[in-house]
Design a protein that fits this description.
heterodimer, A: 337 residues, MetI-like fold, B: 345 residues, alpha/beta, eight-stranded mixed sheet, four-stranded antiparallel sheet, 12 strands, binds adenosine-5'-diphosphate, binds magnesium ion
């Protein structure tokens, strides 16, 4: 099958991408301003103490040596340890990433359903009242900053109405976390069979997922609208109508034509949100990957920041590769070229 | 074969009487008016078009690009979308006014009673759907019970348009086909449900000359063989001469002359028709290009729309719209000039 050939050719570029990500992760961090040793030691430290800390962290070595050390360790699966907690970075990543993945995947699913729906409605009824309504909703969604939307939803749904639990994390303070199997709390709660915990996890996911879902639905709505309007005006749709096809089928034809750019946009959002949901994670005490990254950056915890960049970069690389292959599956013109 | 010899040959074809013999009439369009309400103003694309097609007749519609040919047929088929709107007229097909039909009623006719052959097959066919599935959707839209025979029917339709390996074409995508093959697929789709009437909008634009000829021969064969009727839109009078029985000449959204191909091409009455004929390349005669451009359809001129480009324009042309004048054979034109404009072929 040609799709497999295409996929194989596409995956050929993965190692090259990986190397670039490693170099980038190293350089970005080593070009960061500020001296981590100074931060760790505190303002009252003597020069001798400072030098001692620098030696312990390996900061006194030349750049090139630090890089080869870094790559050598990566190959051994050693991502370094946090300057502060001394915990191995790899296990930190594996601890925080599943929570973010859960948040991002659920949010983007909501965003896609809501946004594509709004976009289809607007595009199909272009120029009519449904279009104007859809556009008003989308503009509103997009003009409210996501952190503000989060606070608004907390105020309305938790403080005023009491529908949602307090934004204290993934579970209530009294809830017993399920044993870790996959690392993804919702799935682990389901596996453990403890429905009370599962319900609590779902309830605590409601507002953050809704916040990101609503906010990013605007992006899906806009890209759907932008690609569906020309598709609906295309000769292809006119011919489909001239053949007597129903409006439903005609819309499906137009959507087939428009779905590649929508999907591409979704992929870009997914990649961006892997590290980009930090503010929402922080507001809801989500314990996610972005939250961990922000803390690490503020503390100049170099191994942690490197680990974050590496993981986010690899995630992005994988998302884009999967996206390209998916596009080829959906569009024969790509895979037969 | 040159356009001229085609015109000469058409003289030997018996002219059809242009009088209304109601039983023969398949399509009768009158007063068709379509506008587009755009940000730049109201585009008066089609302005009171009258035309008819009888049974087993091929009628050509000619005119320069932008003169409203496509909008006319889109109006007839109910395919004009906002900001466009059909604001007036009737289009009786088999006695039913298509312009008054609602969604589902019109859908039942489209594809089944009226086949449509699009201009460019690569923009008409769905690029991301196998050809077989597109055939299946057409059949399912008209006869949900026919699902089991899709493949056989589609194979037969493709064989009818001269495609040698229908199975391979059905399993592939449009972009894998040549232009001529893709247009054959479109024709097969148009003819799939055996329509009595076919509308073709410049069906050979973009194909090379020999393929154009093959495609037009094919379409004519499929129309004549089954006693179908056709409205054939083209900007090429040579095609009209060779393939049509009657011709309708459009200018700025109006029919300015119509009649049998023999009459109109050998004795054109309207200066615009005359100019179109002079612009046909012919051996031994200098090419006389039509100068100027059609009028702005937003700021539609008073009087005769052709006045600004007309070598014979005189006083009444600036303010009075010419009424149709019919000469003995049924040839009709809209011009204030009464004597024959000599073109001489
Ligand atoms: N969707 C549209 N919006 C605005 N104007 C249109 C639209 N479709 C067609 N028109 C205008 O209608 C006029 C006739 O176009 P058309 O029927 O396509 O010409 P042609 O004779 O070349 O087929 C043109 O001036 C064109 O600009
Ligand atoms: Mg046209």
């Amino acid at each position: 099958m040609r799709v497999f050939g295409y996929a194989r050719r596409r995956m050929f570029f993965l190692p090259l991408g990986l190397l670039s990500v490693i170099v980038l992760a190293f350089l970005l961090v080593n070009a960061l301003p500020g001296n981590p040793a100074g931060v760790i030691a505190g303002p009252a430290a003597s020069p001798a103490e400072l030098a001692g800390i620098e030696r312990r962290l390996g900061l006194d070595k030349p750049l090139w040596e630090r890089f080869t050390d870094y790559v050598g360790a990566l190959v051994r699966g050693d991502f370094g340890s946090s300057y502060y907690t001394d915990r191995p970075i790899l296990s930190e990543i594996l601890r925080f990433a599943p929570a973010t993945l859960e948040l991002v995947v659920l949010s983007l699913t909501i965003a896609a359903v809501l946004g594509v729906g709004l976009g289809v409605l607007g595009a199909y009824y272009k120029g009519r009242s449904a279009d104007r309504t859809s556009r008003l909703v989308v503009t509103t969604f997009q003009s409210i900053p996501d952190f503000f939307l989060a606070l608004l939803l907390i105020y309305l749904c938790f403080y005023l109405a009491g529908w949602a639990p307090a934004p204290v994390g993934r579970l209530g303070l009294m809830d017993e976390p399920p044993p870790t199997v996959t690392g993804a709390l919702l799935i682990d709660a389901l596996i453990s069979g403890d429905m009370r915990t599962f319900r609590s996890a779902v309830a605590h996911s409601l507002l953050p997922v809704l916040t990101l879902g609503i906010y990013y639905s605007a992006y899906f709505a806009r890209s759907t609208y932008a690609s569906l309007v020309p598709a609906l005006e295309s000769k292809q749709v006119e011919f489909a109508r001239a053949c007597g096809l129903s409006e439903r089928t005609v819309l499906a034809y137009a959507f087939r034509q428009a779905r590649t750019p929508i999907l591409t946009y979704g992929g870009i959002l997914l990649a961006a949100l892997l590290g980009g949901a930090a503010i929402i994670e922080t507001i809801f005490s989500w314990g996610g990957f972005g939250e961990w990254a922000i803390d690490s950056i503020l503390q100049l915890d170099i191994p942690a920041v490197q680990g974050f960049i590496l993981a986010a970069g690899v995630g992005t690389l994988l998302v884009f590769t999967a996206l390209d292959i998916l596009v080829a599956v959906l569009d024969p013109r790509v895979r037969y070229d | 074969m040159s356009a001229l010899s085609a015109i000469r040959r058409s003289r030997n074809r018996p002219a059809r009487p242009d009088t209304d013999t109601s039983g023969h009439r398949l399509l009768e369009v009158s007063g068709l008016t379509t506008r587009f309400d755009t940000p730049d103003g109201l585009v008066q694309a089609v302005n009171g078009v009258d035309l008819h097609v009888d049974r087993a007749e091929i009628v050509g519609v000619v005119g320069e690009s932008g003169c409203g040919k496509s909008v006319t047929i889109r109006s007839i088929l109910g395919l004009v979308r906002p900001p466009g709107r059909v604001v007036g007229g009737t289009a009786h097909f088999n006695g039913v006014d298509l312009l008054t039909l609602r969604g589902a009623e019109l859908r039942r006719l489209r594809g089944k009673d009226i086949g449509f052959i699009a201009q460019n097959p690569f923009s008409a066919l769905n690029p991301v759907m196998r050809i077989h599935r597109q055939f299946r959707n057409i059949m399912a839209a008209h006869d949900p019970a026919s699902a089991g025979e899709v493949r056989d029917r589609a194979r037969a339709a493709l064989a009818d348009v001269g495609i040698a390996g229908p199975g391979r074409v059905l399993d592939g995508y449009a972009h894998q086909l040549s232009g001529g093959m893709a247009q054959r697929v479109v024709i097969a789709m148009a003819m799939l449900l055996n329509p009595a009437f076919v509308i073709a909008d410049e069906p050979t634009t973009g194909l090379d000359l020999t393929v154009q000829r093959q495609i037009l021969d094919l379409i004519r064969g499929l129309v004549r063989e089954h006693g179908r009727s056709m409205l054939l839109v083209t900007h090429d009078l040579g095609v009209v001469a060779q393939y049509c029985d009657r011709v309708v000449v459009m200018y700025a959204g109006k029919v300015i002359e119509h009649g049998s191909v023999r009459d109109v091409l050998t004795a054109p009455r309207h200066p615009y028709t005359q100019a179109l004929i002079r612009a046909i390349p012919r051996p031994g005669r200098p090419l006389v290009h039509l100068t100027g451009r059609p009028p702005d359809l937003v700021d539609y001129p008073d009087g005769c729309p052709f006045r600004a480009r007309c070598p014979h324009a005189f006083e009444p042309c600036g303010h009075t719209v010419p009424e149709p004048v019919t000469v003995a054979s049924g040839q009709t034109y809209r011009c204030h000039l009464r004597e024959d404009g000599e073109v001489g072929l």
